[in-house]
Amino acid sequence: MQDDALFEQFLAERADALLRFGYLLTGNPHDAADLVQDALVRLRGAWERVRRKSDPESYVRTTMTRLHINAWRRRRREHVTAAPPDQIHVDVPYEGSPVWDVLARLPRRQRAVLVLRYYEQLTDAEIAGVLGISQGTVRSQAFRALGKLRDDLPALVEKGHLA
User: Ranges for the RNA polymerase sigma-70 region domain (predicted)?
Assistant: First the structure.
């Protein structure tokens, strides 16, 4: 019974932050919610072990990142449909932001590296562990992503989106 209460307390305190993290990874609020739900199901199954040995939030974020990467590895590209769905507006804090639009154009791995480095403030070694890549790959992906962002920065400043 104590474990259930601790798990519920964890959810109450960290659910919003996990959803924001999922959105930064996926760029889509619906995919973010699915990602959080899948990761929390896995956390619940391992709750006792995770609670004793490590930080539950770190476990969930690592699980979310790996699930996201596995999903796009399976798809390899977006699914194109002949009939797009009806327009649905979901209030998302970053939606429509010019900076978010630039980030969304980055390849998924580069975006994941930047999110983990600057939003989660992980080290290169930690990012490499989460993504299952070498530290050198983390650094090269970050370098390339930042280069693309720098290329778009003058246009954002010129349009008045950044001061």
Answer: 15-77, 102-150
